[in-house]
Design goal:
- With 331 residues, the chain is an alpha/beta fold.
- The chain has one domain: 7-stranded beta/alpha barrel (Alpha-Beta Barrel), CATH 3.20.110.
- The chain is 38% helix and 13% strand.
- The protein has helices spanning 28-32, 35-64, 79-88, 91-97, 123-140, 156-164, 176-179, 206-213, 228-236, 262-273, 314-317, 320-329; strands at 2-10, 73-77, 104-106, 146-147, 169-173, 187-189, 200-204, 243-248, 279-281, 294-295.
- Strands 1, 2, 3, 8 and 9 form a five-stranded parallel β-sheet that branches.
- Strand 4, helix 6 and strand 5 form a beta-alpha-beta unit.
- Helix 2 runs parallel beside helix 10 and helix 9 (228-236) crosses helix 10 (262-273).
Length: 331
């Protein structure tokens, strides 16, 4: 059976004040960050996305628990999200902890959701992924074995740093300029010259993920409206070792409002996928047990990400101001 990993990036940033530094703030964070706006945004997204989406996923996970083919889910939960959830809606943390152990996995990431992985010296990046891993273990009782970097930013050196911290695999974008004729639906490894440490590369299927993440409510799209039944049939027609679907959690209820039918789609998806005898859901850590089929060689000046058409780091380092701030942040 073809494993399907359904993974969600769960993140809310801390937003800077737009009115300048607040000199009389009682905390250092309060001087620079707009805590009132952070609370407003988080609670709004919680109402539209976090609560209704998690309730549906939890209901399906409990329904299929103990069956030969369970519904399994993967969360990449940022430290920033955890901090705000504990402050504004701690019951969300409780909901994530209610998923049966056999149905849920957690994915590592950089503690500050930062660009530290792009620093030449990987000490800060390694410290951040180590800190986040410890936080996830503390809050959810799971030690991640698979990690991502911020916005799926990846190159060989970033992968090597993650491997040295004990990670078995890393998720990144299945970029055509690196893959060439090959499919993202296979498991790859770092190139031979980087293999002082072992690391498997799990690639996001951009086409199938973005069919939900970007095109779901697009009335101009030839496949609109997208139903779970139709989508599951597409998955069933795929081949390879695994289908990795990795998207923003806010796809459900924020990027696509509930009126588009996105929540009905999410709740029906497990039923429709498991109606196909050749499909099953998988935790990302289960894919590390599979043999890789080839190398994924993303050298330092060919860094990949899931952002924009370029799928590189230019969304963050594409103009002189960004580059200047990045250089200064390393000092």
């Amino acid at each position: 059976m073809l494993p399907v990993t359904l993974s969600f990036e769960v993140h809310q940033p801390h937003r800077l004040r737009t009115d300048g530094v607040k000199e009389d703030a009682s905390t250092l964070k309060g001087r620079y960050f707009d805590e009132e706006f952070n609370e407003e945004v988080f609670k709004d997204v919680a109402e539209n996305c976090y609560f209704p989406a998690t309730e549906r996923l939890l209901r399906q996970a409990e329904r299929f628990e103990g069956r030969d083919r369970q519904f399994k889910i993967n969360f990449s939960v940022s430290s920033s999200w955890i901090e705000q959830a504990e402050k504004y809606h701690p019951e969300l943390i409780d909901m994530l902890n209610r998923f049966p152990d056999s149905t849920v996995d957690f994915i590592g990431q950089a503690h500050y959701h930062s660009l530290a992985g792009l620093f030449k010296d990987k000490k800060e990046y390694r410290n951040q992924i180590r800190t986040h891993r410890s936080l996830v273990k503390q809050k959810f009782g799971v030690k991640p074995q698979v990690t991502t970097n911020t916005e799926l930013i990846y190159n060989n050196e970033i992968g090597s740093a993650a491997a040295k911290e004990g990670y078995e695999a890393m998720i990144t974008e299945g970029v055509p300029r690196v893959l060439g004729w090959r499919s993202p639906n296979y498991i790859y490894r770092q190139p031979e010259f980087m293999r002082d440490t072992e690391l498997k590369i799990l690639l996001r299927n951009r086409q199938l993920t973005d069919d939900i993440g970007y095109r779901f409510s697009a009335e101009w799209w030839s496949e609109h409206p997208l139903t779970a039944e139709k989508y599951a049939s597409w998955l069933s027609n795929c081949s390879g070792q695994a289908l990795n679907l990795f998207m923003d959690y806010e796809t459900f209820g924020e990027h696509h409002w509930q009126g588009t039918g996105i929540m009905w789609f999410l709740e029906d998806l497990p039923n429709q996928v498991l109606s196909h005898d050749n499909l099953k859901f998988s935790k990302v850590r289960e894919l590390t047990e599979k043999e890789s089929v080839g190398e994924f060689d993303a050298f330092e000046h060919n860094t990949v990400s899931w952002a924009d058409q370029e799928m590189d780091e230019t969304a963050w380092l594409g103009n002189p101001t960004q580059k200047m701030l990045f250089r200064n942040s390393k000092k």
